[in-house]
Amino acid sequence: MKQLVIISLLVGAAAVVSTSAGTKDTYEKECARCHGSDGKGDTKMGRKLGAKDYTDPKFQETLKDDHMFKTIKEGLKEGDKTKMKPAEGLSDDEIKALVAYMRAFKK
Predict the structure, then answer these.
(1) Third-level CATH fold of 2-103
(2) Between the chain's N and C termini, which has fewer beta carbons within 10 Å?
């Protein structure tokens, strides 16, 4: 029984690590071009589009998770200008993981 509990814990820990690694890969593929690998938004495209600094705790305080989720899922428009395309092919759980990943940029 003790071995079964240990194996279950190891499998659970591996799933968390795998999910974290998958989320980081998704962020790098879908978000980093504008928001930067570090979340500061200090990339050529990020500066052009006005990407915010997700390492700034004051900025993060202004954000709600549901707004971040909706923006990732549906994209972001300003007038008739598309500032961010929707992330296609991501499940709701993957988007929630991205929101949590971006929250972790806060210093």
Answers:
(1) Cytochrome Bc1 Complex; Chain D, domain 2 (1.10.760)
(2) N
pLDDT category at 1 given cuts 50, 70, 90 is low
Q: Residues 82-103, buried b or exposed e (16+ Cβ, 10 A)?
A: eebeebeebeeebbbbbbebbe
Compute the distance between CA of residue 23 and CA of residue 17 in angstroms, rounded to an integer: 10
Whether residue 5 has pLDDT greater than 70: no
Give the domain ranges of the chain.
2-103
| Average pLDDT taken over every residue of the chain | 84
Residues paired with 82 in a beta bridge: 77
Residue 9 has pLDDT above 80, yes or no: no
